[in-house]
Structures are given as structure tokens and as C-alpha cells.
Amino acid sequence: MAPLRLCAMAPKLQSTFPALYIFGILTLLCPSALCDCKIFPSIAHGSYEDVSSFFSYTTVVQYQCDEGYVLVGEPKITCRDSYWSSSAPKCKALCLKPEIENGGLSVNEDQYVEPETVTVQCDDGYGVVGSQNITCSENGIWFPEVPKCKWEYQMGCEQVLAGNKLLQCLPNPEDVKRALEVYRLSLEIGHLINSQT
Ligand SMILES: *[C@@H]1O[C@H](CO)[C@@H](O)[C@H](O)[C@H]1NC(C)=O
């Protein structure tokens, strides 16, 4: 009963008799001097379990992460002399590989761990629409949102840009490429005819 009563009186004792308060805590509430180890460090996006052996004075806590999170650090921490062997591990969010049509990523992995940042690289002729750099955020979502690679006219096609409007009528890059080739061929045929006359 004594330790409990002391506990209830603790704030008052602390202000009036700091020394007595500390003495009381150490001798009455923490006979095994494991006082601090009664407070298990909690972690975000994960949980812990007391896995101490029943016959041991040593407190051992094991951590695990919620689904979609990966544990970084020591999964088990042990209390010795009132101190935890190390700080609690962290649960870091996992982000799925972003699907980029007509483009790729600076780092290729199946999954990415918060707070990893990747750079989106579009294929030749395509340009990034949105943020080129995206970061795996704490909730497992890419931020800002995954950009798109959009077809752009290639450099060095100035003569074709005159027919820009016509090209925009074509539904996809393949048709544009074919149209360009036909255009080049027609130019070459024109040159040939001109050189013969
Ligand atoms: C994206 O990240 C790369 C490498 O960290 C950096 O060089 C580049 O300037 C960034 N681009 C943008 C648009 O922020």
C-alpha cells in the first residue's frame, strides 16, 4: 500500500521535498531499479509486445510494424540498469513502384521506403507533366503525385512544325512518325526530281 500512496502524493512531494521524492521512487516503487523500463517506448505505425522471460529481471520488448510499413532498426530492445539498450525501431512506409508509361525512374526497385525520392525520366520525345521528383511519404503515397510522360515534338523537326496543326490531328506518336517519314521521303523525291532536271 505504501508505494501506491506515495505515488498519489508524488507531485506534492516533488515540489516540497525533491530529495525525498526521488528517494521514495527509487526505494519503494522501483526496488529492482528497473523503474524506467516500465515505460515502453511506443512507435508510430507499429506495436510492441513484452517478450521478457518470466524468470528474468531483464525487460525485453519486441516491435512489429503495421501492414505497409517496414521496420528500420533493432526489432527487440532490452532494458538494463534502467536504460533501454537502444532506441525503439521505426516503422517506415513502403511505396509501390510508380507506373510510368513512356518513361522510367532514376532508381529501380519493387518497393520504396519513406522518405526516398526518385526522379522520373521520360523516354525520348516525351516530356514530364507534373513534378519530376517524387517522394515516398509517411502514408505510403507518392508526393507530389506521380507525373506523366507526354508526347512532345522532337527537336530538329522545325520544318514539320509548319504542319503542326495537321500532326496534332493524328492520334498517336506512331502515326506522327510515319507521317514524318512520308514527309521526308516526299522531300527527297522532290530533291531527286529537281537534280535530274
Ligand atoms: C530532382 O532531383 C535531382 C537529384 O536530386 C536534382 O538534381 C533535380 O534538380 C531535381 N529536379 C527538380 C525539378 O526538382
Automatic annotation (TrEMBL):
Record keywords, A-Z: Disulfide bond, Repeat, Signal, Sushi
Gene, per the UniProt record: LOC123785869
Sushi domain boundaries: 35-92, 93-151
PROSITE patterns, A to Z: SUSHI (PS50923)
Top-level taxon of the source organism: Eukaryota
Protein name: Sushi domain-containing protein
Signal peptide (residue range): 1-35
Organism: Ursus americanus (American black bear)
InterPro entries listed in its UniProt record: C4bp_oligo (IPR040514), SEZ6_CSMD_C4BPB_Regulators (IPR051277), Sushi/SCR/CCP_sf (IPR035976), Sushi_SCR_CCP_dom (IPR000436)
Cystine residue pairs: C122-C149
